Structure formats: C-alpha cells, structure tokens
C-alpha cells in the first residue's frame, strides 16, 4: 500500500494510524520521542524534532501526503514539506490557529463573536486594559493546551502578576464569561472545497480538561446548531482550510454563541465518532489527505464519550498506581474502550476514552453513569 505521513506521535496520531491502516495505507510517524503512542502502531517511526530539516526531507521523500495531529508543529515545517508533498492542513492555516492573537483577530474578522479580549505584549497592555476584562483569564498566545498556560485573574494586579509568572511572553487577556455549556463543531474540508460536519455534541470540562461529550439527535437546539455550523464553515473557508478541524464554542447563559478556539486536527470532542458515526473523524482525515470523497457524518446512535485520565489510576491512593477494573467496565452494555498505550498514567494525562452507546440518550447516559461509578471518577453528565 501507499504511505501516509503523520507529524506527531500522540493518541490522535495513533487513532489516525488505525484508520489509515484499515483503509490499506502504511503510516510513517515523525515525533521527537523514541516510543510514542502513534510510533508504536505505525509501520515506521522517525524519532526527530519537528523542525529537523534533514528528517523533514526524508519524510517528504517517503510519502506523498502528510498531516498533523499536533497543533504546535512549526508552520515552517509544514511549509518545507509542501515543496514536495501534499500537506493538509497547510502552513498558513496552522500558523493562524496556533497563535491565539492571530486566531482571535481572524475569527473576529469573520464577524463571529469571540470573548472580549485584548492582546498583551507587555505590562502596559494590562495597565491599559478595559475594566470590563476583569475578572478574566490570561492565556499565553502560543503552546497552551488542556488549560495549561492560562490563569484566571480577578484583578489587574493579579493579571500583571500572572503575566510576569509566564515570563512576559505574548498573551491574550479574555473576560471571564458566564458559560451555560460548551459545544464544538468537528468538520472536514476537502481539497476540492467539499465540506462535511459531524453532529454537534455538548462538552463538559473538569479543571480545564474535557471530561465528557454527549451527542444525540435534537440535544443541541437547531437554531444554535445552525449558527455554530455556519460559523465553523465560515472559518474553514476563510482559512482555505484542508483537513479535519474543530471549533470550540461557549454557549452563554443568555443564549449567545461565542467562538473560543480552533484546533487544526481531529479533536477530543470528536472521539465519539469512532463508535457512533458512519465515518470517524480519523477516517475523514485520511480521506482528505488522500483526495478521496468525504465520508458520511450521520450519527448512528446516541452516545456519551468519557475521557480517561491518569488520575483514575490513583483513586484513593496517591502513591500507588492501580489500573481501573476494565473487566467490570466492559461488562456494561454499549461500552467501547479505547486505550492509547501510554506507559505512565500520570494525573491530568489523557490515557484513553470510553464511548457508551444506547438505544436512547437516557440509556446511554445511564450506562455512562455506571461506568463513572466503576471508574471512581466524579464526572457529572450534562
Ligand atoms: P484545549 O486546547 O485543551 O481545549 P486550552 O488550554 O487551549 O484547552 P481553552 O480551550 O481556551 O484552553 O480553555 C479551556 C477551558 O477553560 C474552556 O473549555 C472553558 O471551560 C474555560 N474557559 C476558557 N476561556 C474562558 C472564558 N473566557 N470564560 C469562561 N471560561 C473559559
Ligand atoms: Mg487549545
Ligand atoms: Mg479549548
């Protein structure tokens, strides 16, 4: 079979490998670490830095198409690869979304509401920030994820303090918004410009990390879903985006929809597609990069996705790791377990997820609550 290239060796790359292999492709993974979750299942693993010019050359020579699972891969590396292979998403789109300052400016320019914010490049930006931005959240412009690189600040003084702690690197200060709930649009845009949008789920977060996604027909009101789909499409068109992407939105207590951020790759909130949709988000990624038609995104069944964090290994005993009792959890009907093969289940680290399906959303949630009890976690479903 033909080769496909993947930049990044995390779980998103691993699930991509599985889907690419299902379709008869071989995958070469480039990742800095020697044994990454994706590298373990790929046909070939190149251990090199993402900006290693020699390694990128070798990668480009070994595959006709490259994608990424890591939003912070240097845009310059994508640019270099694009000289000799098809790179989706492209360097220009990734450059925008990997910098919160450029990302927020871009989304606003599409007439899509974002949280009130200001750019922060030095202390004076915070001294001059509008009072309306407090209480707020200071977020580093680059390299933040899973709530890392951001801090809630109740006052200007606290914001300045946090900015100093971050090392005075470029940031954005956002007003803290009254969230009712969060939704995300996972979609694909093909090289042809064709688009396909997956059903919209409701997400819950714990400590800044996604905890669950619930998806069922009619769960998100149609007018809101339509608004979110239209905004995501406008973003994808505006970026001339090629690939799978996700737009995270906040739904405020007054019903308004606010775009939070864009991920230039399959997204954790799209993991439910693996067991509940005709096409998974990872198969869709393969389809885009190989120029195949996009797959159907229909929802086959109501579903609850639960993230498994390393914390589950330490329930009740912080010093002694104990693996959850998968035997008991897999005895629950409708449960599908996905583990990422990570060697060290550290707290706060994503080590797997569980999709729970049911005939009705009530049944899927009931089964998911059973999983939650057996895992000893505290997730509250929306
Ligand atoms: P990830 O990339 O893993 O989704 P991140 O580190 O990039 O996370 P954000 O998505 O910006 O961070 O924020 C993480 C979570 O913090 C959001 O999903 C939301 O629950 C909360 N949050 C972020 N910004 C705001 C805001 N302006 N008002 C209220 N809550 C917010
Ligand atoms: Mg993010
Ligand atoms: Mg986010």
TrEMBL record:
Major enzyme class: ligase
Listed Gene3D superfamilies: 3.40.50.20, ATP-grasp fold, A domain (3.30.1490.20), ATP-grasp fold, B domain (3.30.470.20)
EC numbers: 6.3.4.18
Swiss-Prot/TrEMBL catalytic activity: 5-amino-1-(5-phospho-beta-D-ribosyl)imidazole + hydrogencarbonate + ATP = 5-carboxyamino-1-(5-phospho-D-ribosyl)imidazole + ADP + phosphate + 2 H(+)
Signal peptide, first to last residue: none
Cellular component GO terms, alphabetical: cytosol
Keywords assigned by UniProt, alphabetized: ATP-binding, Ligase, Lyase, Nucleotide-binding, Purine biosynthesis
Subunit (UniProt): Homodimer.
Role summary: Catalyzes the ATP-dependent conversion of 5-aminoimidazole ribonucleotide (AIR) and HCO(3)(-) to N5-carboxyaminoimidazole ribonucleotide (N5-CAIR). Catalyzes the ATP-dependent conversion of 5-aminoimidazole ribonucleotide (AIR) and HCO(3)- to N5-carboxyaminoimidazole ribonucleotide (N5-CAIR).
NCBIfam families per the UniProt record, alphabetical: PRK06019.1-1, PRK06019.1-2, PRK06019.1-3, PRK06019.1-5, purK
PANTHER family, per database record: PHOSPHORIBOSYLAMINOIMIDAZOLE CARBOXYLASE, PURINE BIOSYNTHESIS PROTEIN 6/7, PUR6/7
The name this protein goes by in its record: N5-carboxyaminoimidazole ribonucleotide synthase
Natural source organism: Advenella mimigardefordensis (strain DSM 17166 / LMG 22922 / DPN7)
This protein's encoding gene: purK
């Amino acid at each position: 079979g033909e080769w496909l290239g993947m930049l990044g060796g995390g779980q998103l790359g691993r699930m991509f490998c599985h889907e690419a292999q299902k379709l008869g492709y071989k995958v070469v993974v480039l990742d800095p670490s020697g044994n990454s979750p994706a590298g373990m299942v790929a046909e070939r693993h190149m251990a090199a830095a993402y900006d290693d010019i020699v390694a990128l050359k070798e990668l480009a020579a070994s595959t006709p198409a490259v994608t990424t699972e890591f939003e912070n891969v240097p845009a310059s590396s994508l640019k270099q690869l694009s000289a000799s292979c098809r790179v989706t998403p492209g360097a220009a789109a990734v450059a925008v979304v990997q910098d919160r300052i450029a990302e927020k400016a871009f989304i606003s320019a599409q007439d899509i509401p974002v949280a009130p914010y200001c750019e922060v490049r030095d202390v004076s930006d915070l001294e001059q920030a509008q009072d309306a931005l407090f209480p707020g959240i200071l977020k580093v412009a680059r390299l933040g994820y899973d709530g890392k690189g951001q801090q809630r600040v109740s006052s200007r003084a606290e914001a300045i303090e946090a900015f100093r702690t971050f090392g005075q690197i470029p940031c954005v200060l956002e007003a803290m918004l009254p969230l009712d709930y969060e939704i995300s649009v996972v979609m694909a845009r093909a090289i042809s410009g064709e688009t396909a949008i997956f059903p919209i789920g409701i997400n819950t977060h714990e400590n800044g990390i996604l905890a669950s996604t619930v998806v069922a027909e009619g769960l998100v009101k149609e007018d809101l879903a339509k608004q979110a789909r239209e905004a995501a499409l406008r973003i994808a068109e505006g970026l001339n985006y090629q690939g799978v992407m996700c737009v995270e939105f906040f739904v405020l207590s007054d019903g308004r929809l606010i775009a939070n951020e864009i991920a230039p790759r399959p997204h954790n909130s799209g993991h439910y597609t693996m067991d509940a949709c005709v096409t998974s988000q990872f198969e869709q990624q393969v389809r885009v990069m190989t120029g195949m038609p996009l797959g159907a995104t229909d929802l086959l069944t109501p579903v609850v996705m639960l993230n498994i964090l390393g914390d589950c290994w330490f329930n009740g005993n912080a010093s002694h790791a104990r693996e959850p009792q998968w035997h008991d959890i897999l005895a629950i009907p409708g449960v599908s377990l996905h583990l990422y093969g990570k060697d060290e289940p550290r707290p706060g680290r994503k080590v797997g997820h569980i999709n729970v399906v049911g005939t009705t959303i009530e049944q899927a949630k009931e089964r998911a609550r059973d999983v939650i009890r057996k895992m000893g976690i505290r997730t509250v479903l929306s």
